Amino acid sequence: MKTIYFLLLMVTLSSTAATWTDSFEDGQKLALATNKFMLVDFWATWCGPCKKMDIESWSNKEVQALLENFVPVRVDIDLNRPLAEKYGINSIPNMYILDANGQIVYSFVGYHDPMQLKLELEKFALSTEFLSMELINAFKTKSFTTTTRLVQKYFDYSMYVPSKVRVKFVNVGLAYLKDAKRQLEKKSEGYSEKLQKAELLELSEYAFEGKYSKLDKKLADQFPENKILEDNLPYFYFLKLVAAKGNNSANLAAVEERAASIEGFDYFAKKAETLLAVKDQ
């Protein structure tokens, strides 16, 4: 109940103006509540370029307007050394675009004048509403299941963002996939199935980045169909279908026929169609 009240309070506060918070944890909760990315500025009181950005850049009206699309967080590296070390901060000012779970989306370093800063921020002034449920679930419970669901959601999200940042969000999904594999324990129920799912998800990079020939080769070399566990067949055939359509493969009809016979494949067929349409744009 306290968490819900906090989130509602933060939403109310956010509706007035883009104000900086110096609490990373509060920033995460606010990002979840408002469907925004966090903009984290690592700085220090003795940093000359940081002060210059305060005077010339962060106070700029156009930059201020863009900040409304983010949850702005200030991290003094002298007061928050563990956090600075976690993100490998060795020079400042250093700006990070993070999601509500603290996953890195993008970063840029050094003094930026108002125009340079504006160009950086514009790329990621995006709503995370599409990711909302999976971000919240992963924030509340870190497990293989919640993390892989977020992985897939980021891959899907990449289809709906501007083309210049699509790869960034595929990479966020891949970063989460590394976390998911670390969370997977050999003694856990369904270990083999989950490991195979993670390995198939790794190949999504080629599907979502339009590398269809490489995807087709990886599937042929590493994943013979008779080795695919039943629960992983839909995603396996999603990848096969994307590769076959993307390459205008001679065996496309056979792939489509086999995929259509898999229960619940309609969802993946539509996703493949959307993905290929986006890549053609």
What does this structure look like?
The protein has helices spanning 2-14, 24-34, 48-56, 61-67, 81-86, 114-122, 132-140, 144-157, 166-183, 191-202, 204-208, 212-222, 233-246, 252-260, 266-280, and strands at 37-43, 70-76, 94-98, 104-109. The protein has 281 residues and is of the alpha+beta class. The protein folds into two domains: 2-122, Glutaredoxin, CATH 3.40.30; 129-280. It has a four-stranded mixed sheet. The longest helix is centred in the middle third of the chain and has 18 residues, at 166-183. It is elongated and about 65 Å long.
Strand order across the largest sheet = 2-1-3-4
**Secondary-structure element pattern, one letter each:** HHEHHEHEEHHHHHHHHHH
Helix proportion: 55-70%
Count of separate structural domains: 2
**Secondary structure tally: strands:** 4
Tell me about the largest β-sheet. Answer: 4 strands, mixed
From the spread of the alpha carbons, the general shape counts as elongated
How many helices? 15
Q: How far is the first residue's CA from the last residue's CA?
A: 46 Å
Strand percentage lies at: 5-15%
The structure class reads: alpha+beta
Mean pLDDT: 92
Q: Give the C-alpha Rg.
A: 21 Å
Give start-end ranges of low-pLDDT stretches: 1-17
